[in-house]
Amino acid sequence: MPTQLCDSLWRASSPAAPVLTALEGRLEVDVVIVGGGFTGLSAALHMAKLGMSVAVVEAQEVGFGGSGRNVGLANAGLWLEPNQLDASIGAEAGSVLYNALAAAPEYVYGLIDEYGIQCEATRNGTLHAGVGKAGLAQLERRYEQLTLRGAPVQLLDAAEAQSRIGSDKFNSALFDPRAGTIQPLAYARGLAEAALKEGAKLFEFSPVDKIEPTSGGWAIYTTSGEVHAEKVILATNAYSEYGVKEQARKFVPIFYSQLASKPLSDAQLASILPNKEGVWDTCTVMSSFRLDQQGRLVFGGMGGEGNILSNWASQRVTELFPILSKVKWDYCWTGKIAYSEDHLPHCQQLQNGLFSVAGYSGRGIGPGTVVGAELAQWFAGQRESLSIPTTLLRDIPFRELKRMFYEVGARTYHLGQQSHALS
Ligand SMILES: Cc1cc2nc3c(=O)[nH]c(=O)nc-3n(C[C@H](O)[C@H](O)[C@H](O)COP(=O)(O)OP(=O)(O)OC[C@H]3O[C@@H](n4cnc5c(N)ncnc54)[C@H](O)[C@@H]3O)c2cc1C
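Above are the sequence and the flavin-adenine dinucleotide SMILES. Below is the predicted complex in structure-token form.
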């Protein structure tokens, strides 16, 4: 059963990670970053490039968090519709953030090229696939708002969406040619290599368990070492519960699991996503699917891994793609998404020189990379502010209950879909 295959395709298919050691002894740098995901690694890479001395201290391995576990859709923008973004933070700030993140895939693929990162980079666009009347209405709204802002998106009708996806279960799709797919863990490892090349210091298996103010700024401590710096960035996002627990209370952690099939046959590949776009749907309990470079179907849904999810995934894949009946899964893994109350990432200055960046709400490849670069420019005095909000977040009330609500909701939905199909 797939539930026993608790291993990630991305770990199995990623080029080797750079060899890093644990933090030992005392180190002094300009900036120390806690967490080696897209945010921390991009910040380190760009800070080192701008001449700052910088160290990343990662509890596990580079890419251990959401960065190494995600779907790999390198999308433009955020989850929020552009008008919702403006309503949330104001039209001026909304436009700055929209423009920064509209260009995020360009930035990500540019870095991949610049540093020769081997991460299955495929820039054939993504498809937001419409399900039902509400799904179509959502895509029509997004299309209108995005085209008004100059985005080169296309709203595909049912016939075009169905032939691009290879399934008759969708009534529309919003195609975004700016976007694409990557192998996310390979991208994280590639960013780590690039940061090392630029002179950043990286440490793994070094959980930070104490952060203290000092006369010159801050010190972070692990069991075997300490780093003193003027500034600290907590880049731990949904994985904040370890050592920086108070940040975890600002977000609801939502589980999202994926399964990867055996490589598909040539006939299957000719009809399923022949152009290799990445796809996610408009359902409230969302699913995603894409192909990897070996022709595996990577299918994901909300909720923790387990029999309910894997049984639902097998059945849903058969419904979507009858040519794939009796799909066999080789891999199954789960990641945690940090949902903020306003669905936006925030950079909070918790105290002078102590920053926390988190709350990507499931859209972090482009945003994490761009925010890392902006942090470097901001610290170097090259920009006055960041594109993302810098407001302090409050603790989310009933956070654990909300987490359970989403988890139970996802399971009930998946069970309901199965029994509906069986009846
Ligand atoms: C299943 C899933 C699917 C997703 N799909 C997409 C997608 O298709 N497209 C997209 O754009 N985004 C997607 N996202 C979101 C995206 O992956 C995240 O927003 C992004 O990875 C966040 O990067 P980060 O560097 O901020 O945090 P992370 O990558 O989570 O890194 C945080 C790191 O901090 C480390 N850490 C925690 N505590 C400590 C400590 N005390 N000391 C040292 N280190 C510590 C952790 O070990 C971890 O490695 C998805 C997320 C998930 C979970």
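The domain at 2-125+178-379 is CATH 3.50.50.60 (FAD/NAD(P)-binding domain).
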